[in-house]
């Protein structure tokens, strides 16, 4: 069935402007709900690092501008503006130092919200102060520079990978602040200029939103390419480590069990040596298809090495993991070129039963038990000591 013209236009737009995203990934550009964990982690890291960078930059430039204010304004007005600037600087420094060690998307959202809220509040504060004074000459020219702050803030959105909903949530208070500042002097002496400035502000907002969504699209493509092993379709080791670290953190906070199984295919090297790597690759794909067909929703299979895989089983204690793995082992994982069934040696470790301090210790323990399974004759599961 041919795609409708609308669908073709959507696909062409995605290909040309947003990196060839799938329809599901295009939906991810609109709202943060439904993002996979790895995408959320990568996006949180980018947002937090850039928030700290911008906060540090503003914390340096904001107090320096008091020198310009000192030259342009009367001492009483300068003192009040300086109070606002140094208060904003203190808030920015608190934001910069307070974000150290933060990694969660929740932290990223409130951090970027504060980053934009601090200068927006200062903009309103300065607009109210300046409106109460009759300015001319240099003072009027310097005061006009304060009106550019909303443009700077909205343009600054473009350096963050944001969804449309997040960008609108950041832009709305800034646009409202601009409207409020314009209403401080009513009616405005030059209404067309005020309307033109606000229209330009809307255009800047639209461009910044598109830039933010384009950055997010680029991140989505990179994460998509990085998370999957190109041969088997399972998670790559890098993404498997990130997912396991996330699951370990969640399990530690909730006190839930978390089991991992280290799976090593028996005598796999012999297949590569006798029949070639293409046959070995086919055997790996068939094995992964068999394993994934047995997985529950939430289980994670990652290719850890050549013929080694790590199976992460959230909310699963050691006994439950053993039952599931024995059921998996009861059938051949794949058919070898000589017609025999492919077997595996499996080691299991569980967070609570083994008292693992971190996810790496959990993997090391499962790996050690896998070697015990091999030494005991292969084609078996060695699990925790009950």
Description:
The chain is of the alpha+beta class and 386 residues long. It has 2 domains: 222 residues, no CATH class; 146 residues, Reverse transcriptase/Diguanylate cyclase domain (Alpha-Beta Plaits). It is elongated.
Tally of DSSP β-strands:
5
Q: Give the overall pLDDT as a whole number.
A: 89
- Per the principal axes of the C-alpha atoms, what is the gross shape? elongated
Supply Rg.
29 Å
Distance between the termini: 57 Å
The count of domains is: 2
Contiguous low-pLDDT stretches (5 residues minimum) are: none
Strand content: 5-15%
Query: Count of helices?
Result: 16
Task: Please summarize the sheet with the most strands.
Answer: 5 strands, mixed
- Class derived from helix and strand content: alpha+beta
What is the share of helical residues? 55-70%
Biggest sheet strand order reads 2-3-1-4-5
Helix and strand pattern: HHHHHHHHHHHEHHEEHEHHE
What are the defining features of this structure?
386 residues; alpha+beta; Alpha-Beta Plaits; five-stranded mixed sheet; 5 strands; 66% helix
Characterize this entry briefly.
The chain has 386 residues and is α+β, with helices and mostly antiparallel strands.
Topology, please?
Blueprint: H1 5-17, H2 23-28, H3 37-64, H4 66-72, H5 75-98, H6 105-131, H7 137-145, H8 149-156, H9 164-183, H10 191-227, H11 237-254, E1 258-265, H12 268-275, H13 277-294, E2 300-303, E3 308-314, H14 318-329, E4 344-350, H15 351-354, H16 359-375, E5 380-382
Parallel strand pairs: 4-5
Antiparallel strand pairs: 1-3, 1-4, 2-3
Helix pairs in contact: 3-5, 3-6, 3-10, 4-5, 4-7, 5-6, 6-9, 8-10, 9-10, 12-13
